[in-house]
C-alpha cells in the first residue's frame, strides 16, 4: 500500500546525506543553517527539525543540489525505520 501525501514527510536523512555527497561536512552544513552539529546529526537519525530550521536546511539543499522543493526526498511516516535501519528494526 502506497502512502498518501498526508502520510509523507521530508526524509531528512536523505537531505543531509545528499549534502554530504555534494562535499559538505556535517559541520559546514550546520554552520550554513546556523544550528549545532549535534542538532543536524539528530535530524539525520530521525528527529524532526523545528519549522524555521527545517526551512533553512531545505533552502540550503535546494541551493546546493539545484533541485526545487518539489524534488525533496520524502518518506512515509511509518517507513522511516524500514529504510534507514541497518537491521530493519522498527520500534
Structure description:
The model is unreliable at 87-91 (pLDDT under 50). The protein has helices at residues 12-21, 26-33, 37-44, 51-65, 80-84; strands at 8-10, 74-76. The two termini are 20 Å apart. It has one domain: 434 Repressor (Amino-terminal Domain). A two-stranded antiparallel ribbon has the order 1-2. The longest helix is centred in the middle third of the chain and has 15 residues, at 51-65. The chain is globular, with a radius of gyration of 13 Å. The protein is 51% helix and 7% strand. By secondary structure, the protein is mainly α.
Strand content: 5-15%
Outline the low-pLDDT stretches. 87-91
Distance between the termini: 20 Å
Order of helices and strands: EHHHHEH
- The number of strands is 2
Estimated structural class: mainly alpha
Biggest sheet overview: 2 strands, antiparallel
Helix fraction by DSSP (H/I, runs of at least 4)? 40-55%
Average pLDDT value? 86
Strand order of the largest sheet: 1-2
The total tally of domains equals: 1
Whole-angstrom Rg: 13 Å
- CATH C-level name: Mainly Alpha
